[in-house]
Design brief:
The radius of gyration is 30 Å and the shape is elongated. Helix content is 48%, strand content 14%. It starts with a strand and ends with a helix. 42% of the residues are buried. A four-stranded parallel beta sheet has the order 4-3-9-10, with helices on both faces. Strands 5-6-7-8 form a four-stranded antiparallel beta sheet, with helices on one face. The protein contains 19 helices and 19 strands. The protein is α/β, with parallel strands linked by helices. Strand 9, helix 7 and strand 10 form a beta-alpha-beta unit. It binds one RNA strand through helix 1, helix 5, helix 7, strand 12 and helix 10. It is an enzyme of class 6 (ligase). Belongs to the class-I aminoacyl-tRNA synthetase family. Its EC number is 6.1.1.16. It catalyses: tRNA(Cys) + L-cysteine + ATP = L-cysteinyl-tRNA(Cys) + AMP + diphosphate.
RNA sequence: GGCGGGUUGGCGGAGAGGUUACGCAGCGGAUUGCAAAUCCGUGAAGACCGGUUCGAUUCCGGUACCCGCCUCCA
């Protein structure tokens, strides 16, 4: 069995991963507060811990891993959003959850086993808080219930700070009713305008932190294996979760391995609205950057290092994935990924190393392993590769006409009739098919870009040579294929748009013509074939 | 002020106390009837100052700079 090693923030060490129960490995990831589209930073933990989920399923068995990722759908940010827009809170959270699913699905993240909503667990939170009060770890003050950090000696251990240190340089909110400035709210009163639930302390709502403690307890038990999230959650969120959970369930130990991913930057700077480099996953998807490409970029940086999102990385990733998809088009994945690949992932999720190995397999032409590895990290999946098909990279043979014409071309080339072969190639390219001739064989697939390259360079060359008619012919060809382009005194303009429907129509018409021509060529070749 | 992370060749980005990371770009070459592509080779690094060591980019200490958290934040 693959030995997984993970860096545990709690011990600051890379440790062998030993689950409490190999038949039910349990992990919890802090999910989003649902009031807005997920931004690029939100998506990083989702993707990297999705790889962990996949690895655990691979090692322990698909049915032996329970993965919980919550939705925090009660929070003052949501209330503020509702107040600002006049919308119903439930509308906002429902819509945001649907968006979240759309966007994370696009990134190839598997849905967790459970996606609990905080508002469905208010009762569990109240029970937990009652327990904390009963054990003397929490106290009621002015309608609030507060956690007493001094009652938990290990408070600060996860983040490596002591209560006294924190207070020293701190700008903590010193509410007069707090026994200690670091005490945090478990329950707070709601006025009539705010969402609220009846509780022993009056109508109110939970504070931040308690929802994760309650939900992880309900779904995973008092002790479970992995708790993950962004490093920014280390303090105070995770620290407070530990304090609550360990005090509510003494001796349980709560989560055993704490994993934290480093933060995301954009072009070397912190992502922020004021710098104008703030964007959501949806923004990138809408720009036409496929989710699979975004995922690849995430995986190319180790999760415990700061990651920089750049347009350049996306371009490189897209190129690599194009190549890989092409290589894998006709193969089935090998039964299991190579050991070295699993070892890379098992070594604290070394995804950059894993991708390097995939490059190696691609270079070796080892498509079966490449594909198997891809599936293990959520790449090259049929559902994710849709963008590849959407770009009309259809495999050889998928359109039987391309296959037929290509066969005729191969025979023509074998017979030394390059004139006939070239004629057919031209027809293919003008139809919108990319053609690559190799020694005896040839491959071809539908690809608008091939026509674009061919006609655009043709138009430019003709224009420079002063042949306006030829330039016009090339431009017209492009137009007929759905490319928006104009021709004026300065020559051909840049492409300003692409109409896919128009292209498909163009493709169909030209393909029929090319097929007829191929049949004619075949007749020409026939006698020679018989003579030989 | 406290806590934590980072600093690798033109760019991205790993591992390993001593041996080529790898990818992109560059350069050189091969191959190809043409187009497109493909293939091979190759230079280049580890912020700075000390220490440990036969030997450190890799371990230890310090300095500088960058980033994050300490207040809602993935």
């Amino acid at each position: 069995m693959t030995d997984i090693r993970l860096t545990n923030t709690r011990t600051r060490k890379k440790e062998p991963f030993v689950p409490l129960d190999p038949a039910n490995v349990r992990m919890y990831l802090c999910g989003p507060t649902v009031y807005d589209r997920a931004h690029m930073g939100n998506a990083r933990p989702v993707v990297v811990f999705d790889v962990l989920f996949r690895l655990l399923r691979h090692v322990y068995g698909t049915d032996h891993v329970t993965y919980v990722r919550n939705f925090t759908d009660v929070d003052d940010k949501i209330n503020a959003r509702a107040a600002a827009t006049g919308r119903d809170i439930r509308d906002i959270t429902e819509e945001t959850i649907a968006w979240y699913h759309e966007d994370m699905d696009a990134l190839g993240a598997l849905r967790p086993t459970h996606e609990p909503r905080a508002t469905d667990y208010i009762g569990a939170m109240i029970t937990m808080i009652e327990g904390l009060v009963a054990r003397g770890h929490a106290y009621v003050a002015e309608g609030h219930v507060l956690f007493d950090v001094r009652s938990y000696p290990d408070y600060g251990r996860l983040s490596g700070r002591s209560v006294d240190d924190m207070i020293a340089g701190a700008r903590v909110e010193v509410a007069p009713f707090k026994r200690d400035p670091m005490d945090f709210v478990l329950w707070k009163p709601s006025d009539a305008d705010l969402p609220g639930w009846d509780s022993p302390w009056g109508r109110g709502r939970p504070g931040w932190h308690i929802e994760c403690s309650a939900m992880s307890h309900e779904l995973l038990g008092a002790a479970f294996d992995i708790h993950a999230g962004g490093i920014d959650l280390q303090f105070p969120h995770h620290e407070n979760e530990i304090a609550q959970s360990c005090c509510a369930h003494p001796g349980s130990g709560f989560a055993r391995y704490w994993l934290h991913n480093e933060m995301l930057q954009v072009e070397g700077k912190k992502m922020s609205k004021s710098l104008g480099n703030f964007f959501t996953v949806r923004d990138l998807l809408d720009q036409g950057i496929p989710g699979e490409v975004i995922r690849f970029v995430y995986l190319q940086t180790h999760y415990r290092k700061p990651m920089d999102w750049t347009a350049e990385k996306a371009r490189e990733a897209e190129k690599t994935l194009q190549k890989w998809h092409y290589i894998c088009m006709t193969v089935r994945p090998s039964r299991s990924a190579p050991t070295e690949f699993l070892d890379a992932l098992a070594d604290d999720l070394n995804t950059p190393q894993a991708l390097t190995l995939m490059r190696k397999y691609a270079k070796q032409g080892n498509a079966a392993d490449l594909l198997a590895c891809g599936h293990l990290v959520g790449l090259l999946e049929p559902s994710m590769g849709l963008w590849f098909d959407r770009n009309d990279h259809l495999k050889l043979g998928e359109d039987p006409r391309i296959f037929e014409i290509t066969s005729v071309r191969e025979r023509a080339r074998a017979a030394g009739r390059f004139d006939l072969s070239d004629k057919l190639r031209k027809l293919l390219i003008e139809s919108g098919v990319a053609v690559f001739d190799h020694k005896p064989t040839s491959r071809a697939f539908k690809e608008p870009d091939a026509l674009l390259r061919y006609a655009l360079s043709g138009a430019n060359k003709a224009w420079e040579a002063g042949d306006k008619l030829a330039a016009e012919a090339s431009v017209n060809l492009l137009r007929s294929a759905g490319f928006q382009i104009s021709l004026d005194e300065d020559g051909p303009s840049a492409i300003t748009g692409f109409d896919e429907v128009k292209f498909d129509k163009h493709y169909e018409e030209h393909m029929e013509k090319a097929l007829l021509e191929a049949q004619r060529v075949e007749e020409t070749l026939e006698p020679e074939a018989d003579d030989t």
